[in-house]
Amino acid sequence: MVPKYNPHEIEKRWQARWEADHLYQVTESSQRPKWYALTMFPYTSGDLHIGHWYAMAPSDVHARFKRMKGHNVMHPIGFDAFGLPAENAAIKHGIHPYTWTMQNVEKMRAQLKTIGAVYDWSREVITCNPDYYRWTQWFFLKFYQGGLAYRSKAPANWCPQCQTVLANEQVVSGFCERCTTPVIRRDLEQWFFRITRYADELLEFKDIDWPERVKIMQTNWIGKSTGVEISFELSAEGVEDKEIRVFTTRPDTIFGVTFVVLAPEHPLVEKLTTPEYTEQVRRYVERARGQTEVERLSTEREKTGVFIGAYATNKLNGERVPIWTADYVLYSYGTGIVMGVPAHDQRDFEFARDFSLPIKIVVAPPGWSGGEFAEAYTGSGTMVNSGRFDGMPSEQGMEAISDYIEEKAFGKRTVSYRLRDWLISRQRYWGAPIPIIYCPKCGTVPVPASDLPVLLPEDAEFRPTGESPLRYCESFVNTKCPVCSEPASRETDTMDTFMCSNWYFLRYTSPGYDRGPFDPGKLAYWMPVDQYTGGAEHATMHLLYARFFTKAVRDLGLVQFDEPFTRLYNQGTIVLERQKMSKSRGNVVNADDYVLKLGADTVRGYLMFIGPWDQGGGWDDRGINGIWRWLNRVWTLVLDGWEEQETRPDTSAVEELRRQTHKTVKRVSEDMEKFRFNTMLAGLMEFTNYLGKVKEDRLVGPEAWNRALDTLLLLLAPTAPHLAEELWELRGNPYSIHNQSFPEWDEALVAEDQVTLVIQVNGKLRDRMVVPVNISEAEALNLALSRERVKAYIDGKEIKNVIYVPARLVNLVVRN
Hints:
A hairpin with a 3-residue loop joins strand 19 and strand 20 (about 445). Strands 8, 9, 10, 11, 12, 13 and 16 form a 7-stranded mixed β-sheet that branches. The chain has a 4-stranded parallel β-sheet with strand order 2-1-24-25, with helices on one face. The chain is globular, with a radius of gyration of 34 Å. The two termini are about 65 Å apart. By secondary structure, the protein is an alpha+beta fold.
């Protein structure tokens, strides 16, 4: 009698055994090749739902596979623990962010352990602990000393709801990515990192295997453009600035400039506005600052703007053009100044039409007869109304005008980027304090490294307004200057939490090290990460920042590699009722309920069977029940043996079992290597069904049967580690199955020596037959004509044609 499969008991027992035996702890002394497998660590939100499992369980399967394939696998886990939700919880529930966060860590750690992953828990990091953010602050000081960190007053993305500044990457379509509140602009003193120094290198993806879509997203975000920066002469009285500089990718259209537009946030707006327009411009700028970038850039809204009373002169033709301010120009892009060429830019065209500004054609399209345009023409053509450059093809004109601009020192060829320096300041409490002191005498002074960490005060008062409590906490703000020992004040901004995730993968290599952020020797052994997995939504935030950070610390002499993650794989999204799971939607599936009822192995299996991992899929209870039934069949198949005298050994059956086993090993191995988990599981299910038929036929002896069963368990071990371990032990094999080698296949045994040939008559399927893979056309035709089912359709008819696809198809074309 086969005992009932009880995953709840089995899984708890094996998890305790593995932990007690330190089965998954790794060191640098192994003779095996290293494999650093990493999944993006979770934020401490308080609960793991099935979406978290979808990111973590399949990546664990791949790490287990690599381990059984002979690698020294490190697969660590930790917690991204700083951030706004903890601070909002403090305000809402009257609980300190640290208390809230650590309660969530305890709960999530327990949930993570039910997955049964190969996590090396001895390497756990929690980013809100002082022994971690001490080194986050240390990296800031290194950036500051290296000229990569600076403070500047600049327009910033401000979320009124979160009461904090957001980086450009955290503004999604004009809204706060955290709370979806429309983002406005404010001028604030902010700390920045010079990510723009690395723009060109970040556009290179040498020696890394990343998804093409992520590379495209980063390339577009960096937004490299080549063109010309040209100066326009200012004629405003009482203004120090004598010119303004504009970047354009279309120097061939400069003769068509009929106005210039400044972004409302541009400092020159206030300087250049003449007295009679001051009040009108002030009201317009104030209104524009309250709008989101989405609203300002919408192609469907009516264009708005005001003339500021000043003029600029186009140096190429001497024409004086009016200067306007308009909200369709953003200060964060380019120079924040746009030359208006309405004939050849649609936004400029609409603006000129709405405000009755001239539209001057300077690139004539093919066949143009001299009439007005109904819309902007943005293609190539022939230069007109462009002085000495008339008659040139516009492509040639671009080069000729660029040469002329440089010859006359009006400007120069240059490169512009959409990417802006990374704004890291946050007006929040729950983050790593920026280690800077402001002294009335000494100015801006970095905190000495020996004084780190700058600790967050425990007595901070959390106000319902959402303002940072640090600025009102005297015990934190008031300090002494480390240079002159006079009274001074601390910086009250904290760092963007992406600073913490910039380097957590480095800390995993030596989490207990206290002489630096990492042990250099251990870092050299493990880095870079061999396989990183996580969502593509992080392409222009975490993944871009981590690449920048790695290159920066390389240049600071701290690491010896260029990229943090050699391979990247993005999982898709698991949905419920066609919507992405999220707490805000209230449509999350609680993984704990299914683990308790069906076991972690069933949940793991279903998440991989749901569809291609990079595409995601929909959660369906009927599907998970199918995986549960399959694992129960495996349980019964392995434990329900038979006596040797019951078998009727057949040499061909044994050989076929061997061949099918090797074919399955190959299929599972190749699918596992490429993260094709759904087809890998389909192969295991087919093999299970095949073994069930072998068992019914009783045509193989116990040796062949036991070998096949052991292979099945070894193939199953990465996916269902608890079940495989239990059955492995019950079969009398040595502990642990997870220390065994993954099966290999014999290529000679998996080579197809027979194929199924399809026989059609007039394109309709009439029969199939198994034939040698190297069958000739004549042999295939003779066999097809001899089949009884085929004869019924061709007897008495004339065969007009035979269509033969080698080793696949014979189609007989007949007529009466």
